[in-house]
Design goal:
The chain is an alpha/beta fold. The protein has one domain: Rossmann fold. It has helices at residues 39-47, 72-85, 98-109, 131-140, 146-156, 166-177, 180-190, 221-232, 246-249, 251-268; strands at residues 3-6, 9-16, 24-28, 51-55, 91-96, 114-120, 206-212, 235-239. It has an 8-stranded mixed sheet with strand order 1-2-4-3-5-6-7-8, sandwiched between helices. Strand 7 (206-212), helix 8 and strand 8 form a beta-alpha-beta unit. The chain is globular, with a radius of gyration of 17 Å.
C-alpha cells in the first residue's frame, strides 16, 4: 500500500489504473469512512483510462494517527500534496461528505492544479444541531459503545440501495473504530471545527454536485444540493434509491457522471 508522507505523518491511499496515461482523479471520503467506499468508482475510472488515487483521511483507515489537525482545511492540504506527489495536471477531485468541503477548498486555493470537482453528499456548511441533538451525539460518541454505535449509524446512512460487499465494508469500519488510539483521531475529526465554504471566488474548476435523494443527513436533500450547486456554480445530479454514499450505493450513476466531468475538463484544456 502506498503512503503520502506529510509533516506530521503518512496518508494511506490506493492507486487504481497506475499505468494509465489519462488524467489524475483524487477521491476523498468523509469522516468515519474508509477509502474502500470508492472501490467501485476507482475501478470504473481506471477502466476508462484514468489514474485514480483514493485516500484515507488523517487517522482513518491506514493513515497515521499522529496528526494534530483534522478539519476540512487540513485535509485539503493533503489532497493537494497527493495530487502533486502523483504528478497530476488539471486534476479532478472527488469528495464525499466532509471530503467535499476539502476538495472545494483545494480547488479555490489551487486553481492552477484543480480542473474539476465532484461533490457527493456534500457538507459545505457545518450542521447546527439543537441542544438535545448535541447531547445525544455526545452520548453516542462515548466508549466503549461508540464503535458499534457509529457503525450502526454508517449502516443507516446507506438509505436506499445496499452496495455490493456492504457487510465487508461495515466490518472494515468497525475494525477501524475499535482501537482506542485510532478512535481518538477519528473523534477529533468528528469534533473538528470546520469552516463554512460559501465563497469560491477565483475557483476555475468545473463542478458537479451529486446528492442521494434519500440522504438522511438533511431533511431536504434536494434543497441542500441546490444550495451547494449555487456556491460552486455547478450542475446538479440527484440520485434515486441512494443515501449518503453515492460512490458505493450507485456507482452505475456516479461513474458515468465522473467520466463526463473528466472528459469536459480535458476537452477544455
Amino acid at each position: 500500500m502506498p503512503y503520502l508522507r506529510r509533516p506530521e505523518g503518512r496518508i494511506a491511499y490506493d492507486l487504481y489504473g497506475e499505468d494509465a496515461s489519462g488524467p489524475l482523479v483524487v477521491c476523498v471520503p468523509g469522516m468515519f469512512d474508509h477509502r474502500a467506499s470508492f472501490r467501485f468508482v476507482g475501478r470504473a475510472l481506471a477502466a476508462a483510462g484514468y489514474r485514480v488515487a483514493v485516500m484515507d483521511l488523517r487517522g482513518h483507515g491506514d493513515s497515521d494517527i499522529t496528526f494534530t489537525a483534522h478539519d476540512s482545511r487540513a485535509t485539503s492540504t493533503d489532497v493537494i500534496a497527493l495530487a502533486e506527489e502523483l504528478g497530476g495536471r488539471r486534476v479532478v477531485l472527488v469528495g464525499n461528505s466532509m471530503g467535499a468541503a476539502a476538495v472545494t477548498i483545494a480547488a479555490v486555493d489551487r486553481p492552477d492544479l484543480v480542473a474539476g470537482i465532484a461533490l457527493l453528499g456534500p457538507f459545505l456548511r457545518p450542521p447546527t444541531p439543537a441542544w438535545w441533538e448535541r447531547t445525544m451525539q455526545n452520548a453516542l460518541l462515548l466508549r466503549p459503545w461508540a464503535p458499534w454505535a457509529l457503525t450502526f449509524l454508517y449502516d443507516r446512512l446507506h438509505a436506499g440501495r445496499t452496495p455490493e460487499g456492504h457487510d465487508e465494508q461495515r466490518a472494515r469500519i468497525l475494525r477501524m473504530l475499535r482501537p482506542a488510539d485510532r478512535y481518538r483521531s477519528i473523534l477529533a475529526t468528528i469534533r473538528a471545527t470546520n469552516e463554512t465554504v460559501d465563497r469560491t471566488e477565483g475557483m476555475a474548476a468545473e463542478a458537479v454536485v451529486i446528492m442521494g435523494e434519500q440522504d438522511p443527513d438533511w431533511k431536504d436533500p434536494h434543497a441542500e444540493a441546490r444550495w451547494v450547486a449555487s456556491v460552486v456554480g455547478g450542475r446538479l445530479v440527484m440520485v434515486p434509491a441512494c443515501g449518503h454514499y453515492a460512490q458505493s450505493q450507485r456507482p452505475d450513476v456516479v461513474a458515468p457522471v465522473l467520466v463526463d466531468l473528466v472528459e469536459r475538463v480535458v476537452t477544455d484544456a
